[in-house]
Amino acid sequence: MSTPVVELQNVAKEYGPVVAVEDVSLSVQKGEFVVLLGPSGSGKTTLLSMLGGFTLPTRGQILIDGADVTGVAPAQRPTVTVFQDYALFPHMTVKDNVAFGLAMRRVPKPQRTELANAALTQVGLADFGDRRIHEISGGQRQRVALARAIVIEPAVLLLDEPLGALDVKIRRQMQNELHTLQRELNATFIHVTHDQEEAMSLADTIVLLNHGRIEDSGPPERIYREPASVFAATFMGDTNIIRGTIAKSGRGNVTVDTALGTLKCHGQGEPGEAVSLSVRPEAIRCGAANGPDRVKLGSGRLSDFVFQGTFRRCLAATGPDASVQLQLRLPLDTQAGSDAPTPIWTRSTDIVVLRESSE
Ligand code: ADP
Ligand code: MG
């Protein structure tokens, strides 16, 4: 692998007794789209702010293009930050906002205009250069903020919840555009969000943060299919967690004693060890469980059907005295009523075994 464009080595940030970021190490490759994902307060903004030079780490080192920039001021770094509130100059025109950073870098005027126009074209605002900020929409302001950042051609573009203020439809559209733009520029983007759908639609690599630590990191599909912890499983979409104890293990398989019976699944662990099993709602089916890899999850009544367009969401009450409630996402053609108890099952390959210690 080539030299990473960004490298964090054991970076931590404490505010008195508050640990905002605790021992984060991370490498980012050139041209990678990295999304820092996590709930509110998990340390995303603090981490991004240390990358941008606005916050000094308590410990650790930050390298960009191989150089230690840990204590270097924002303007002296090859990074640009797009803030959530865009921080545009309301009294200036769109074009002057975009050209502002170039002026600071003493780029001559004719060249500034040319570069600003090119950046505005790239974000689809070629005809808006002479407008003032209050004369354009929220989505357009977002694009101006983006144009102002890319015009500098930073080695790394840092984005803190840049789509957070937009309504859902424009947000989805901007996600697509941001993705396309990043590919066109072949630039390195580090993007913060608390929205797992946004993270999945943008990222080459998701870095999932929880309490200032990296809980899991990797391609979205891997984190979704094989989360590293209960937190990762539940944060990356809906899931069912079934607790149990390993009864037997060997050859990459374990059998786990649970309230739903003894379940056989792929995984590792020692007999006696407490584990949590994660099964996605779309991986649970109802009806006869015939087939070698099918694992019975008891039987139960289905209730609370909700039509969701491409599937039907419902609940199944299974286990002893119907004490275990599972969420299901059934294909629309599933023949399932709510009167009689129905067998509930999944595939052994759809069960992820998570150690309790990784919670
Ligand atoms: P996120 O962006 O994921 O919501 P932040 O990085 O903003 O999280 O915050 C992480 C933690 O650090 C939170 O508990 C927050 O209250 C705390 N924190 C952030 N900035 C400061 C500060 N300047 N002073 C004290 N505590 C802070
Ligand atoms: Mg934040």
Mind sketching the topology for me?
Layout: E1 6-15, E2 18-28, E3 33-37, H1 44-52, E4 59-64, E5 67-68, E6 79-82, H2 94-104, H3 109-122, H4 138-150, E7 156-160, H5 168-185, E8 188-193, H6 196-202, E9 205-210, E10 213-218, H7 220-225, H8 230-235, E11 240-250, E12 253-258, E13 261-266, E14 274-279, E15 285-286, E16 294-307, E17 312-318, E18 324-330, E19 342-347, E20 351-355
Helix pairs in contact: 2-3, 2-4, 3-4
The chain binds adenosine-5'-diphosphate (ADP) and magnesium ion (MG).
The site of magnesium ion has 2 residues, from helix 1.
Which keywords apply here?
six-stranded mixed β-sheet; 2 domains; alpha+beta; 20 strands; binds magnesium ion; five-stranded antiparallel β-sheet; elongated; Rossmann fold; 359 residues; 8 helices; binds adenosine-5'-diphosphate
Descriptive account of the structure:
This protein is an alpha+beta fold. It has two domains: 6-233, Rossmann fold (3-Layer(aba) Sandwich); 238-354, no CATH class. 23% of the residues lie in helices and 36% in strands. It is built from eight helices and 20 strands. The protein has helices at residues 44-52, 94-104, 109-122, 138-150, 168-185, 196-202, 220-225, 230-235, and strands spanning 6-15, 18-28, 33-37, 59-64, 67-68, 79-82, 156-160, 188-193, 205-210, 213-218, 240-250, 253-258, 261-266, 274-279, 285-286, 294-307, 312-318, 324-330, 342-347, 351-355. It has a six-stranded mixed sheet with strand order 6-7-8-3-9-10, with helices on both faces. It has a five-stranded antiparallel sheet with strand order 13-12-11-14-20. Strand 16 and strand 17 form a beta hairpin. It is elongated, with a radius of gyration of 25 Å. The model has no long low-confidence stretch (mean pLDDT 93). Adenosine-5'-diphosphate binds next to strand 2 and helix 1. Residues 44-45 line the site of magnesium ion (MG).
